[in-house]
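Retro notes (design track)

What went well: tokenization of the new backbones is finally stable.
What didn't: we kept losing track of which sequence belonged to which structure.
Fix going forward: every design gets posted as structure first, then sequence, in one message. First example under the new rule, 441 residues:
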């Protein structure tokens, strides 16, 4: 106690120091616990942020709407690209849709919906008529059946006093209204028939420029359905007649000439346009029709580019290769013509995508057997290069009068003389959107 009394100040200071130390230790501990809590929360938030970063884009409604919009745009672009691959009737279908006053996309969707709904009818002609009716009547009010029950008058007979003049007036008014409705319906039916007729003529006008198919009414309907994605088939007997007909028409087409197309020389008695000999099986018929679409297009392109001759043209296999919704038909051909016409034909094939056909050239070889130097009247390529007599060694060549040699500067190699070209190419068709049927009469 004596020590405490003598060192009171010291002990007071020590006591205060201990108290302050305890308080500081408490605050340090509290802050430390808070920091640990913050660190734990930081780890949790980091995990959440990492997860949100991995979820791209953030699942907000605006982002989901944007994703759906972009998906639809991409799908529409993909559908447009698909229509480039082996859809030769697309231009005609577009003209057909314009004449009907509907969009091309609507027409495709309407056809698929009509086919799925009406395929139980069995006849493709009936399906087509129903489809055309749906397209023409799109958006029009449909007539309602009169479901009203007959009026029953429960009044006593004594209260029934029919005014003859009033009834006659009402009947006349009703007859006038019925006649007006009938006239309007007749006018509407006439307008619809004219619209359908204009659409058929628009389709035919585009198609007849580049096809040898018969364009009678029934076949025109089938070609429209084929352009909309209907896989046209026929019985084996009808297909055999179809092969003979297309063979004859192609052989006739190569001989036809006008301002835009030249004749095309083919081997006599050739069978290169006969896709299949004998009776085809049912599963081969749709493929045979696709081969003839290719053949007629190739002949038109050869004639347009004024290639002189078609020596051979044959598929590597009839069935082709199907992969990823696409069918690839591979062909080999040999043509003969000038360098210019051959170059134009190859460029024409490469630009065919603009007309909804895709050709991929796999192999190309050219050979030129004609001696171009000899064609100038100068002997052979291995002979003398000028038309003068050889000079004896040691003597001077006599001076020519009248200027330079007339053949001076003439092209000896690489001119426009005829060449023989062998081609191997793929013809690609998108078939995943086709409506397939098992048989058709």
């Amino acid at each position: 106690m004596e020590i405490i009394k003598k060192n009171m100040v010291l002990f007071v200071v020590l006591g205060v120091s201990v108290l302050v130390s305890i308080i500081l230790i408490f605050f340090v501990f509290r802050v430390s616990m808070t920091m640990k809590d913050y660190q734990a929360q930081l780890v949790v938030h980091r995990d959440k942020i990492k997860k949100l970063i991995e979820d791209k884009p953030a699942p907000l409604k605006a982002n989901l709407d944007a994703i759906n919009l972009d998906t639809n745009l991409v799908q529409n672009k993909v559908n447009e690209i698909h229509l480039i691959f082996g859809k030769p009737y697309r231009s005609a279908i577009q003209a057909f849709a314009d004449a009907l006053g509907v969009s091309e996309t609507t027409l495709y969707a309407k056809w698929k919906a009509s086919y799925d709904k009406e395929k139980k009818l069995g006849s493709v002609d009936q399906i087509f008529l129903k489809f055309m009716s749906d397209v023409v009547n799109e958006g029009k009010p449909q007539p309602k059946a009169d479901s009203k029950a007959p009026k029953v008058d429960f009044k006593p007979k004594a209260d029934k006093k029919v005014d003859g003049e009033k009834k006659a007036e009402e009947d006349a008014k009703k007859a006038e209204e019925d006649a007006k409705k009938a006239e309007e319906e007749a006018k509407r039916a006439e307008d619809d028939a004219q619209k359908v007729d204009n659409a058929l003529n628009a389709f035919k006008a585009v198609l007849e420029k580049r096809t040898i198919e018969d364009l009678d009414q029934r076949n025109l309907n089938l070609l429209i359905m084929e352009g909309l994605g209907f896989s046209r088939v026929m019985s084996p007997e009808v297909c055999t007649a179809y092969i003979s007909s297309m063979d004859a028409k192609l052989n006739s087409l190569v001989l036809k000439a006008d301002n835009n197309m030249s004749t095309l020389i083919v081997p006599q008695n050739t069978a290169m346009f006969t896709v299949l000999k004998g009776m085809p099986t049912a599963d081969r018929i749709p493929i045979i029709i696709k081969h003839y679409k290719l053949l007629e297009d190739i002949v038109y392109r050869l004639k347009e580019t004024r290639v002189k001759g078609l020596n051979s043209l044959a598929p590597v296999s009839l069935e082709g290769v199907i992969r990823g919704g696409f069918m690839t038909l591979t062909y080999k051909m040999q043509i003969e013509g000038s360098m210019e016409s051959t170059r134009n034909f190859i460029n024409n094939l490469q630009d065919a995508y603009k007309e909804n056909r895709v050709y991929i050239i796999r192999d190309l070889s050219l050979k030129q057997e004609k001696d171009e130097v000899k064609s100038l009247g100068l002997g052979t390529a291995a002979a003398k290069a000028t038309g003068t007599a050889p000079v004896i060694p040691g003597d001077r060549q006599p001076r020519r009068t009248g200027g330079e040699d007339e053949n001076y500067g003439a092209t000896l190699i690489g001119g426009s003389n005829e060449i023989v070209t062998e081609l191997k190419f793929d013809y690609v068709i998108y078939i995943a959107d086709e409506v397939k049927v098992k048989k058709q009469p």
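Added context from the reviewer: Residues 8-54 form the longest helix (47 residues).
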